[in-house]
Specification:
By secondary structure, the protein is mainly alpha-helical. The protein has 4 helices and no strands. The protein is elongated, with a radius of gyration of 15 Å.
Length: 121
């Protein structure tokens, strides 16, 4: 994967989400919310990968903005799973910290790309 930090972090996050999904299904017998988290949490890395083949800088920004939306959706599902008692504090904080970090990196890439193409100052 090289040294592309968002590519690495989003892939590792997807692996963590897959493991969390397995735990929720096998140990907690929770199938609905966990499936939502699986979809949104793994799509972040997929969108980051898609952005590598973007047709333009605007397409690149668009794909990363969608990845950001998926990260925000994942944050919602994790919060809901925690507040409803399916995740403990440690599990929640681990995933939450990753989401915050991924969102900061995505925001930074989007802003700097917009600045480079003159979309914002």
């Amino acid at each position: 994967m090289g040294d592309n930090i968002i590519k690495i972090k989003s892939f590792n996050f997807a692996l963590k989400i897959v493991d969390l999904y397995k735990f929720l299904c096998n140990d907690k017998k929770e199938f609905v919310l966990s499936k939502q988290l699986l979809r949104s949490g793994t799509s972040i890395g997929a969108l980051v990968r898609e952005s590598e083949q973007a047709e333009s800088k605007l397409d690149f920004i668009h794909k990363l903005a969608i990845a950001q939306k998926e990260a925000n959706e994942s944050d919602y599902w994790v919060e809901l799973l925690f507040q409803s008692g399916y995740l403990n504090e440690t599990q929640f904080q681990s995933v939450k910290n990753d989401i915050v970090e991924i969102n900061k990196i995505l925001a930074s890439i989007i802003i700097s790309t917009k600045q480079r193409i003159g979309k914002i100052k």
